[in-house]
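Pipeline run #58 for the internal structure catalog. This entry was flagged by the ingest filter as a single-chain record with no existing model, so it goes straight to prediction. Upstream metadata was stripped on purpose; only the residue string is passed forward. Reviewer on rotation: M.T. Logging verbosity set to normal.
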Amino acid sequence: MQITETKPLNPQDYYRLPWSLSDNGIFWLEVTSQCNLTCEGCYHENIKGAHKTLEEIEEEFKTIKRLRKTDSVSIAGGDPLLHPQILDIVKMVRRYGWKPIMNTNGLALSQAPELLKELKKAGVFGFTFHIDTTQKRKDSQANTEIGHIELRQKLADMVAKEGGMVCGFNQTVSEQTLEEIPEIVRWAEKYPDIINTMVFILFRTPGMSANFDFYAFGKKVDLYETYIKTSWGGEKNLKAHEIVGKIREADSLFVPAAYLCGTIEADDMKWTLATRIANRKKTFGYTSPGFMEFIQNFHHSWFGTWLSYASLPLLHAGKSTLLFLGWRDKQMRKALWRFLTTPSAWFSKVCMQNFAIIQPVDLLADGRMSMCDGCPDITVHEGKLYWSCRLEEIKKFGTFVTAVPKEKVKKTQEAKKEAAVHL
């Protein structure tokens, strides 16, 4: 498959989000290990009935309060909607003063739509639905990302009809599905008022790094006990700038505003964020790095946390944002000018719509692993904070694994044999 090559992004052109390990916009809470789908390449063990108790979750909340400021809690799993006390969990998150964001594949809502009303009553702030072709679903028989648009639309309409909750979609992307991104973007951009966020997560698996051996506490381990080998992901580790290139095929105005870099590679855009200002007919522009910095600092000064999920009233205030803050810099003034020179838009609903690209762990040639610096998806395990995307390593091996190039292992073994001969 031909992959469009685009110029790598320069982080210095954008606003580095001030999120850190101890002061962040989001926190990741895994309430269950049970899931009602089996996604190809999923790293999480699916265990029926493995739900955390409310007492266990309460202890994790105490750890969060002690170690990390946060604006929102991503309630995840498995699939969190399978937890028999999910309504109580949502209420607990609210009681602690956080925004409950449900990270779900949406299958439970497709099968029992009345659950949506109960979740809203419990205080859920919004939903992030994970839908892509890694899944074999009962509610969508499609085998392409474009084919799943009908299901995405159904869920977005359900949330919008109930009202008062934000709605977003996650999609895992590999070189096999890269070419479908422009069409997904075109669909999402038709509905900036009800599709508030689109997230593209780049696929990673050890199978794409076959030239390494992996060790835990000095002992060689088989990572395929933890990360399932799959052909779906292809052979190439995609980078954020390639996704930006695909988005621009659908929207030439697309430009990121903020990022998080890697723990090792400073020029890696691990989290790339952009906010579009548009109505259902036209894109007026994207918020600037300076605007993102202003919003983050204002929220932290006023509320004490960095902003992660904005409320619907704020997201639907695109017109006010342009009129009152469109003067801030050249990029915002261009968006304001497009709006002012489009009279048909003056009385329309103008919204802000978010796009995010997540580039997970990258395995460097020397075996070092570049993680997300200031990762929003940190979670709790036995009273400590860990990257949620590598939690299975902690559970199975008691530590994050280290990677050693096979060529280096081979040379070390040969050197030991030669030394033994001389002795």
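catalog note: The domain at 11-406 is CATH 3.20.20.70 (TIM Barrel).
catalog note: DSSP finds 13 helices and 18 strands in the chain.
status: ready for reviewer M.T.
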